[in-house]
Write the structure tokens for this entry.
Amino acid sequence: MTRMTRRSALLGGSALATLAACGPKKATPGTAPVVAETPPPAVPVRMDGTAMAAAIAAGDTTSEAQVLAAIARAESVNGQINAIATKTFEQARAEALLPMTGAFAGVPTFIKDLLDWKGTQTLWGSRAFRGNISGADSPFAEKWRAAGVVSLGKSTTPEMGLTSSTEPLVTGATRNPWDLSRIPGGSSGGSAALVAARVVPFAHASDGGGSIRIPASTCGVFGLKPSRGQLPSREPGPPPPVDISVNHAVTISVRDSINLFRMAQVNDGTFTPLGNLTPLTRRLRIGYAPESVSGTPVAPETRAALDEVAQLCRDLGHEIVDFTPPMDGVEFTDKFLLYWAAGAAAFAQQASAYSGKPIGPDIVEPWTLGLAARAQARQAEMPATVGYLLAFEQQYNAWFDSMDLMLSPVTGSPAVHIGDQAPDGDFDKVMESVLNFAAFTAPMNVAGSASMSVPLSWSPSGLPIGSMFSGKKGDDALLFELALELETARPWADRLPGVVAS
């Protein structure tokens, strides 16, 4: 089938080093490796990807054993969380038997359903693209394939990644492993749910307005949004007017995120190649910004969690100063949303062209249609909107003249209920829920800066609450070092959700 090209998408801890019990023994040199004859029990993954790759390379386990174990884990929980858009289990079993090289050779994972992975269906979370088989890897996918990962399939995403929940009509709602009545966030919701449920140690994710950090927060995993230009982000061709979307991953461990970043980094001289990182030793001046710039409410449990994390940073010796971003948050939100809506309008046109059907609710979701209608009604404002967003980077960078990083919530509340942001719900009510929930992450996409969600807190009812630390473009290494320090101070890897591979 014709491959749809997206040109303007708006869109290690010691506990992890324990080998999985299902791995076969080390093979004797010169003999064939021990092969698992039947799928092993679906026990939660106990290694991060870095440890798993090392164990495979050392012969302590095999890629086949790890792939079979991951498939068993996926089958054990996917009926509850519904996080897989397309399964490629047979292909994965075959790949696991082949010789592989790379930093993550033989490690099983999932690819988000917005990225072209050769020979695999890319739905873009949409009914319009059923049967759309990618004829080639995207530039970012090429990096992961060269690293030797084994894809088990595509993880779920909302249609074109256009909302902060993962409830696409084409595959149905994805559910949060911590509470099946709640969303996993979006748009990398399927990936975050699979990692949270310990099916795989990491999974591909992308972020055009918060889509790595939001699901990382709601699912209790780690997620860093790279600076613009650090990692391959889009198809070849003219860039969009404001390039807001980036690719990376959600992970259990910080070191997996670092190693995935390092192997995919674009070494064109713009940024310093990521070196060997250790927990941060120098102390930082961190601006604490717990309130939404647009005035939307912050849930009491979210504010309490962030206050506690600010105190944790003080206890570690960092200086915490109160900070209110000097910006008109209402104006920013309006401009960003209009630009986002223009992406929805472009996607609707692409869906129509691919399917051969007119734009309508039978191929495009009501949420997408509502956004597209907004863009069409305000089309004359687009040049000024683009100009405003392009100028925002300089304004954002000035925030850091007197501080190193900023600490803020990732979302306005813990995960909301399934249906609150359903793509076929009342448009105005869904919009209100999205704006209240996803109120913090978009400025970093427009500025092209580095930003991360760190899983340091849980609500009294047991829902994860991430803490967002953000810097300027190029501060990726600094954030990683802080994340390593926080991971050491408050480990999270052994904290498991109620729905986990077992």
Notes: The longest helix spans residues 329-355. The longest strand covers residues 451-458. The two ends are 38 Å apart (CA to CA).
